[in-house]
C-alpha cells in the first residue's frame, strides 16, 4: 500500500518514482523476495522510473558517512550487549519505554571501559527536541536523547542500521518526498538528526495508514496475512486505495491509476508551484 501511495505522490507532483530494496538486514531477507516484489508492483502498473537500488550493495557509501560522523565527534564505538543495557537500566530504576525498545543509557560515550567494540552509535547528547512536520500526521516532536538514546549506526554483526542507510540513500538519489507506512514515523527524528550532522537535505515526509490485522497490529505473515495475489491488478489497487481513502473507480488498472492520481493531487499537492 505504501508503494501505491508513493507512486501516486510522485505522479501527482510530476516527479520520478524510485524503488529501493532495503535489504541491509541480510539474514532476515528471504531469497527471491525482492524480485517477487518487483514483479507484483509491475503487475499493478507500478514500474520505477529508474533501476531499483539494493542497499546490500552500498556498504561503501554507508562506511563513508560513518567515517564522517566519527571525524566530527558524532559517532563512537560501543561494547555493550543487550544484556548490559538491560542491567544498567534496571540499576538506574528506569523502566523500558517506547513500545519495549531499550533506551541506550550512554554507557560507552566516554570510552569502552575495557570492552571490545561491538557497534557504532550516534551521539545524541545535547540534541534537544527534534521537530518535523508530516504531511498527513501534522507536527511531530521527539526528544531523541531521552526517548531513544544514542542509536545504532553499524550493528555488532557488521550490518548497517536502517537509519543511516536510508538517510545516505535519500540524499544520493535526490529524494525530495518520502512516502512510507505510519509504523516508520517514529524513526524520522533520528533521520533528521543524521541529515543535519551530515549536511544533507531533509525530504518532505508522508506516513500512510497501516492495514491492521484482527489483533490491531500491522498486518503481516506473523498474524495471518495471506500472500499478495496480483493476478487481478484492479482488485489489488482498489483494496489498497480504500485504505488510503481513495474513492474513485475505473474499469481497468491503468484507468484506476489515472483517476487515483488526480484524487491524490487534489488532497496532497498544494496549489501553486509544485514542491
UniProtKB/TrEMBL annotation:
Q: Which UniProt keywords apply?
A: Aminoacyl-tRNA synthetase, ATP-binding, Ligase, Metal-binding, Nucleotide-binding, Protein biosynthesis, Zinc
A Gene Ontology biological process noted in the UniProt record is:
tRNA modification
InterPro entries reported for this sequence: Glu-Q_tRNA(Asp)_Synthase, Glu/Gln-tRNA-synth, Glu/Gln-tRNA-synth_Ib_cat-dom, GluQ/Sye, Rossmann-like_a/b/a_fold
Question: Could you tell me which Gene3D superfamilies the record lists for this protein?
Answer: HUPs
Query: Does the record's keyword annotation contain Disulfide bond?
Result: no
One of this protein's Pfam families, by short name? tRNA-synt_1c
The Glutamyl/glutaminyl-tRNA synthetase class Ib catalytic domain covers 2-229
Q: Which SUPFAM superfamilies match?
A: Nucleotidylyl transferase
Q: Report a single Gene Ontology molecular function.
A: ATP binding
May I have one GO cellular component term?
cytosol
**Which protein family is it in?**
Belongs to the class-I aminoacyl-tRNA synthetase family.
The identity of this protein, by name, is: Glutamyl-tRNA synthetase (Glutamate--tRNA ligase)-like protein
Q: Kindly list the organism's lineage.
A: Bacteria, Pseudomonadati, Pseudomonadota, Betaproteobacteria, Burkholderiales
Amino acid at each position: 500500500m505504501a508503494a501505491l501511495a508513493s507512486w501516486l505522490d510522485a505522479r501527482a507532483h510530476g516527479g520520478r518514482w524510485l524503488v529501493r530494496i532495503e535489504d541491509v538486514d541480510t539474514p532476515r531477507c528471504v531469497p527471491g523476495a525482492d524480485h517477487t516484489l518487483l514483479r507484483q508492483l509491475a503487475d499493478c502498473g507500478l514500474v520505477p522510473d529508474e533501476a531499483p537500488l539494493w542497499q546490500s550493495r552500498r556498504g561503501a557509501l554507508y562506511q563513508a558517512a560513518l567515517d564522517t560522523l566519527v571525524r566530527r565527534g558524532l559517532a563512537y564505538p560501543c561494547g555493550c550487549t543487550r544484556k548490559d543495557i538491560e542491567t544498567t537500566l534496571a540499576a538506574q530504576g528506569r523502566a523500558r519505554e517506547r513500545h519495549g525498545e531499550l533506551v541506550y543509557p550512554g554507557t560507552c560515550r566516554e570510552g569502552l571501559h575495557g570492552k571490545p567494540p561491538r557497534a557504532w552509535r550516534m551521539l545524541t547528547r545535547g540534541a534537544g527536541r527534534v521537530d518535523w512536520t508530516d504531511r498527513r500526521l501534522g507536527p511531530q516532536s521527539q526528544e531523541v536523547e531521552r526517548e531513544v538514546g544514542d542509536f545504532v549506526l553499524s550493528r555488532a554483526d557488521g550490518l548497517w542500521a536502517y537509519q543511516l542507510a536510508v538517510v545516505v540513500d535519500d540524499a544520493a538519489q535526490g529524494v525530495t518526498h518520502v512516502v512510507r507506512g505510519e509504523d516508520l514515523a517514529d524513526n524520522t527524528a533520528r533521520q533528521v538528526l543524521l541529515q543535519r550532522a551530515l549536511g544533507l537535505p531533509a525530504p518532505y515526509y508522508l506516513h500512510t495508514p497501516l492495514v491492521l490485522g484482527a489483533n490491531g497490529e500491522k498486518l503481516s505473515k506473523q498474524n495471518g496475512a495471506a500472500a499478495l495475489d496480483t493476478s487481478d491488478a484492479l482488485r489489488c489497487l482498489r483494496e489498497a486505495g480504500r485504505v488510503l481513502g481513495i474513492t474513485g473507480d475505473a474499469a481497468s488498472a491503468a484507468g484506476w491509476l489515472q483517476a487515483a492520481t488526480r484524487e491524490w493531487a487534489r488532497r496532497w499537492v498544494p496549489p501553486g508551484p509544485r514542491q
